[in-house]
Design goal:
The chain has 541 residues and is of the alpha+beta class. It is 22% helix and 25% strand. It is built from 13 helices and 30 strands. Strands 5, 6, 7, 8, 9, 10 and 29 form a 7-stranded antiparallel sheet that branches. A 6-stranded mixed sheet has the order 12-13-14-20-21-26, sandwiched between helices. The chain has a 4-stranded antiparallel sheet with strand order 19-16-25-22. The longest helix has 17 residues.
Length: 541
């Protein structure tokens, strides 16, 4: 007998419902159902489900063809099931075209064979919402890490041809941090091998050798180098599990009579990991009578919308209380289906930030039946609910790079209507869209589902935010060091209204050899896998 779409989605899209034997809903969505037969494989039904969910929730779903034209089951190369699903998702994201560029909204300039926003996470048996990278470990959105604690590395060539590698970030409480390593330190030896060659291939190339040494399969690492104070270090690191704060650094400066608070924020992790840490920092700012802020988001790829809202409420002036913070906009199909109570999202269980299914009145809560308001701009608006006692911040300066994305950009954009906001550094990633996890069999599919705008209706920053003052990431100095170019320019703007001239292009001594931090041999050689996105997980009322 031919199955309905609702049967297909319930059985193959929700692994949790499979095992709890929930009753299937006979009301189906007005989307043409696929040719389900008794011979359809689990793999084929998973591909069907991904396409059917995309037809309903994808932000640019109106550009998608019919099921018959797209033919999701055609993605069946012998490589692997997850590769087939990724190929299908990639093709789905080719249809929404940005008229400003003539390319898909999800065109990835760093890798044209990959999506820029949407992705699939193979859960296997986890059930977690946190990001679990495949090739190398990193800190997840729950604050848990299982690695050496090295975030970003950049190699710099000297005038004599020697190469050294600077730490751009180290995760708090990690093995590397406990050994005293920090941003601005550099090394020249890895596992006994001197770093000097980035031109050969394979592991003979030092770039590949370092990435291999930092991979998730490795448990030990030895490094030799020089700290910022020119003292030498030799450390032996052992991979371990640790809990890491999202606060990389916080400081308070008194400059020209002004009290300025500085916060370097690593990620918009879940409320359990982030909220108390943020509250502690802003309590310090309040006690010190801080009136202006510098928020360093240079490597912050985003995370939870709820954590972004919390940070915004801590920063925003009290005069904005009760006004619009930001709005989320979903596609017209989803708005209509929600209104008609006919969305397949009623099969998607709502989970908290630790991945636990939510229940209310003894019944499982789904995205559709929880969200009483959510699919129109007027109804799906987050209002300012001022928190903390930093009530009247005047200026907020954000430090950014191309790694600043999603919830970070949402924070910047939401504050613009209410205070003097400036950006210093490099153009941001450009991600004004977000998603929520859709469980399909043993995968969580994160497909772009909503866009965000601020109180002035401003959004759509797909090309990123261009800084008010362009400054290169000055990795020679630690977070919060007033000699660092971006922070120096931020303090200058707050106190004088102008930006300092850049000191970049000058040199720093490395073992007696001058190294330019603007050298043509500069090469970003390692970026720890980290979450890049904006997850909307509504809280239970």
């Amino acid at each position: 007998m031919k199955k309905s779409i609702s049967h297909t989605i319930v059985f193959f899209a929700l692994i949790t419902i499979i095992f709890t034997a929930c009753k299937k809903d006979k009301k189906v969505t007005p989307i043409p159902e696929p040719p389900v037969t008794s011979t359809a494989s689990r793999s084929d039904l998973t591909k069907d489900s991904i396409f059917l969910y995309a037809k309903e929730v994808y932000l640019w779903n109106s550009s998608l063809p019919t099921y018959e034209v797209f033919n999701p089951r055609s993605y069946n190369s012998p490589s692997s099931h997850i590769n087939n699903l990724n190929a299908e998702l990639f093709e789905i994201t080719r249809y929404g075209i940005n008229s400003a560029t003539g390319k898909p909204y999800e065109f990835n300039p760093d890798d044209s064979t990959d999506t820029k926003y949407s992705y699939i996470e193979d859960l296997v048996a986890s059930g977690k919402l946190t990001y679990v990278p495949a090739s190398a470990s990193s800190v997840g959105l729950d604050g848990k890490g299982n690695d050496f604690g090295i975030g970003n590395l950049v190699a710099v060539g000297t005038n004599s041809g020697k190469v050294v590698v600077f730490f751009k970030s180290i995760f708090p409480s990690s093995p590397a941090a406990l050994q005293g390593l920090s941003r601005g330190d550099y090394f020249d030896t890895v596992n006994g091998r001197n770093i000097s060659n980035f031109t050969t291939t394979g592991l003979n190339n030092d770039y590949d050798f370092i990435n291999d040494a930092l991979s998730s399969t490795k448990t030990t690492l030895t490094l030799s180098g020089t700290k910022k104070d020119n003292t030498k270090f030799d450390v032996n690191l052992t991979k371990s599990i640790y809990n890491s704060s999202p606060i990389l650094k916080d400081s308070i400066y008194t400059v020209n009579g002004k009290k300025i608070g500085y916060l370097a924020f690593a990620r918009f992790s879940d409320d359990k990991n982030a909220e108390a840490a943020l509250n502690t920092v802003f309590a310090k700012f309040s006690t010190a009578n801080v009136t202006d802020l510098v928020i360093d988001l240079r490597y912050n790829g985003g995370g939870y919308v709820s954590t972004a809202a919390h940070l915004i409420n801590l920063i925003i002036p009290a005069s904005a209380n009760g006004k619009m913070m930001f709005a989320e906009t979903y596609n017209s199909t989803l708005q209509k289906l929600k209104k008609d109570n006919n969305s397949i999202l009623k099969n998607q269980p709502l989970k908290d930030q630790q991945g636990k299914i939510q229940y209310k009145g003894g019944k499982m809560v789904t995205y559709a039946n929880y969200l009483d308001e959510p699919y129109t701009v007027a109804e799906n608006t987050t209002l300012v609910n001022k928190e903390g006692s930093v009530a009247n911040a005047i200026k907020a300066v954000f430090i950014t790079t191309g790694n600043t994305a999603s919830a970070s950009e949402l924070t910047i954009n939401s504050l613009k209507p209410y205070m003097d906001v400036k950006i210093i550094g490099e153009t941001t990633y450009g991600k004004p869209v977000g998603f929520f996890p859709i469980r399909i069999d043993k995968f969580d599919v994160y497909i772009s589902s909503f866009s965000t705008t601020n109180a002035l209706g401003e959004g759509f920053y797909f090309a990123g935010f261009v800084p008010d003052a362009i400054k290169k990431d000055d990795y020679r100095y630690d977070f919060g060091d007033v000699k660092e170019d971006c922070l120096k320019a931020a303090l200058s703007y707050i106190t004088t209204g102008g930006y300092t001239n850049s000191s970049q292009g000058q040199t720093v001594k490395v073992n007696g050899t001058s190294v330019s931090n603007k050298s043509i041999t500069e090469k970003n050689i390692f970026n720890a896998p980290s979450f890049n996105g904006m997850i909307a997980i509504p809280k239970m009322k």
